[in-house]
Amino acid sequence: HLRHAAATALSGGERRRVEIARALAARPSFMLLDEPFAALDPDLRIVLRGELDRLQRELALPMILISHDVADAEVFGDHVVRMQDGAIHHGALVMDADIDPVLAEKKTHR
């Protein structure tokens, strides 16, 4: 149903899906995603995180995700780089408890 819909008639989640499909149609060697879940309601954020995670695994496509949301980094990422004042402040595997105090706190409450 999205193929023939006007862009203005699409919901936020539908627009994101179309944007991602267009990017994938070019068969990129990697994807840079800048706040792909921003301005989406919490339920839709969860759905789109799952869809992107599935696509990443199925296509073996490296993705770089930029987000201010710690949950995006924790759920979607394998590696996290935290930037502060335009410089890399810390980088580590998501599974490492010392990535960042916020992520470390979340890991202890799982």
Task: Provide structural commentary.
The protein is an alpha+beta fold. It is built from 4 helices and 4 strands. It starts with 11 loop residues before the first helix and ends with a helix. The chain folds into 2 domains: 1-67, 3-Layer(aba) Sandwich (Rossmann fold), CATH 3.40.50; 78-110, no CATH class. Mean pLDDT is 77; it is low at 105-110. Strands 1-2 form a two-stranded parallel ribbon.
Short note summarizing the structure:
The protein has 110 residues and is of the alpha+beta class.
Per the principal axes of the C-alpha atoms, what is the gross shape?
globular
- How many individual helices? 4
Structural class: alpha+beta
Strand percentage: 15-25%
Strand order of the largest sheet: 1-2
- Distance from first to last alpha carbon: 38 Å
Question: How many domain modules?
Answer: 2
Low-confidence regions = 105-110
Question: Main β-sheet, in a few words?
Answer: 2 strands, parallel
Percent of residues in helices comes to 40-55%
Number of strand segments: 4
Assign the CATH topology of the largest domain.
Rossmann fold
CATH architecture of the largest domain: 3-Layer(aba) Sandwich
Keywords:
Rossmann fold, 2 domains, two-stranded antiparallel sheet, 4 helices, 4 strands, 43% helix
List strands and helices in order, with pairings.
Layout (H helix, E strand, L loop, with lengths): L11 H14 L5 E4 L7 H18 L3 E4 L3 H7 L2 E6 L2 E7 L7 H8 L2
Parallel strand pairs: 1-2
Antiparallel strand pairs: 3-4
